[in-house]
Design a protein that fits this description.
The protein is mainly beta. The chain is 11% helix and 40% strand. The strands form two sheets. It has a five-stranded antiparallel beta sheet, with no helix packed on it.
């Protein structure tokens, strides 16, 4: 008797159909773990303004959720091209991660609700003429985000006191 690949591939399909007919819908002949839910989908978006004057930078950040699922929390990362001064104070919900990175929790993000606001006033070592600020989402509760472009920004900020939008 000659065994072909087609016969080998066809056998499991025939067995699965036979099991479904014998056991009925929703039942399985093999013990399987309970299926996990599909990850929620949420479109986190960051927007704001940033300005630099001498050694101090002001960041006004708005984080929103365009849905379709609400989020219990998200974490936004702000990376600066210049190290932060030791005296920089962070608002509640934010912490330093290394010499030039700040992480901030947003709290719950409902779908299409008013954006969560985070305001930071930070200092730098010396008086940089310019700073690059990178903003992105580090954690979003395991949700799938099909549009990650609107939560990732890179802004060149000149030390003029002018506000740069992102």
């Amino acid at each position: 008797m000659r065994v072909t690949w087609r016969a080998v591939l066809k056998a499991p399909a025939v067995a699965a159909v036979a099991a479904a007919v014998v056991l009925g819908p929703g039942l399985s002949a093999v013990a399987e773990p309970a299926p996990r839910g599909i990850a929620p989908e949420a479109d986190v978006a960051h927007h704001g303004r940033v300005s630099l004057r001498e050694e101090r930078i002001e960041v006004q950040l708005r984080t929103g959720n365009r849905g379709p699922s609400p989020l219990a929390d998200a974490t936004v990362r702000l990376r600066f091209s210049v190290p932060l001064a030791a005296w920089s104070r962070l608002p509640p919900g934010c912490l330093r991660s290394g010499g030039s990175t700040v992480l901030c929790g947003t709290g719950p993000l409902r779908v299409a609700a008013e954006a969560r606001r985070t305001a930071l006033g930070l200092g730098f070592k010396g008086r940089p003429a310019e700073i690059v600020v990178r903003v992105d989402t580090v954690w979003n509760g395991g949700a799938s985000d099909r549009n990650p472009q609107n939560d990732t920004h890179e802004v060149l900020v000149l030390s003029t006191g002018d506000a740069y939008a992102f």
